[in-house]
Design brief:
Elements lengths: L1 H14 L4 H12 L5 E5 L3 H6 L5 H22 L3 E8 L7 H24 L3 E5 L7 H14 L6 E8 L1 H17 L10 H6 L11 E4 L18 E4 L9 H13 L8
The structure holds farnesyl diphosphate.
Protein name: Isoprenyl transferase
Subunit structure: Homodimer.
Family: Belongs to the UPP synthase family.
């Protein structure tokens, strides 16, 4: 009975954004190679708000809606993992009011979107240093993780208080401790071992990285994991980024020839 209800809910939510053309678009894209993991630097919320004479936080509020649309789009396509850069270790330098607003977003997303994520069988995770987050943010993350722990569909990761260099230093410290204590031979530390010491240990490496807003840089995001990713940039600001634009990025990905250094 519960299984039936869940299936019905997934069906219901799946209908919410699909039109006939959209269905065909998805069907065509599914015939090509899909990226297993898509990582996104969601940029341009502040500029979006400024251009409308609104406070920066209004841009983040609008950006949340895009998070919902793109999560649906990725899930409808059958992407295995979607990672969203939501708050960097550098973002603490922003005005207090903005930081407080951003820290409230996981709680808000929990209230507004948890049911749909569960119905879609999506597992929610977090990448980053949790200890430094306010307790209400940690609480929302914990609730997300618990409520979606047994889900077997797409893995939706929020990179929160995330910085790639910090992530690598943290991994290195763990490895050094194990070598010093004799638990680990130095020679056993290879690329695979190091990869497993990162927050992304059980995720495939991103095949595609998208950045919105016209900035063409990586900004300390998954420096190790993006080694062979295809990069896709758009001038569109994150709140204006649509499901169809996401499909365009996937379409472009399917035209790339990935050689991993070979000819
Ligand atoms: C970058 O735009 C965006 C962010 C720092 C935050 C993005 C977060 C969300 C869209 C919501 C995340 C949702 C959850 C549930 C955690 P910016 O402010 O740097 O824009 P600007 O470059 O135009 O100033």
């Amino acid at each position: 009975m519960i299984h039936w209800l869940k299936k019905w809910l997934v069906g219901y939510h799946r209908e919410t954004e699909k039109t006939g053309t959209d269905r065909e678009r998805i069907h065509t894209l599914q015939k090509g190679p899909l990226p297993r993991h898509v990582a996104i630097i969601m940029d341009g919320n502040g500029r979006w708000a400024k251009s409308r004479g609104m406070p920066r936080v209004a841009g983040h509020r609008a950006g949340m809606k895009t998070v919902r649309h793109i999560t649906r789009a990725a899930d409808d396509l059958g992407i295995e993992a979607l990672t969203l850069y939501s708050f960097s270790t550098e973002n603490w330098k922003r005005p207090k009011e903005e930081v407080n607003y951003l820290m409230g977003l996981p709680g808000e997303f929990l209230r507004t979107d948890l049911d749909e994520l569960v119905a879609r069988n999506i597992r929610v995770r977090m990448l980053g240093e949790e200890d430094q987050l306010p307790s209400h943010t940690r609480d929302a993350i914990m609730k997300f993780k618990e409520a979606t722990r047994d889900n077997t569909g797409m893995i939706l990761s929020f990179a929160l208080n995330y910085g790639s260099r910090a992530e690598m230093i943290r991994a290195m410290h763990g490895i050094i401790d194990d070598v010093i204590s004799g638990k680990l031979e130095k020679e056993a530390v290879d690329e695979e071992y190091f990869g497993r010491a990162l927050y992304t240990a059980d995720l495939p490496e991103p095949d595609l990285m998208i950045r919105t807003s016209g900035e063409v840089r990586i900004s300390n995001f998954m420096l190790w994991q993006l080694a062979y990713s295809e990069l896709w940039f758009t001038d569109v600001l994150w709140p204006d980024f649509t499901r169809e634009m996401f499909f365009e990025a996937i379409d472009d990905f399917q035209r790339r020839s990935r050689r991993y250094g070979a000819v």
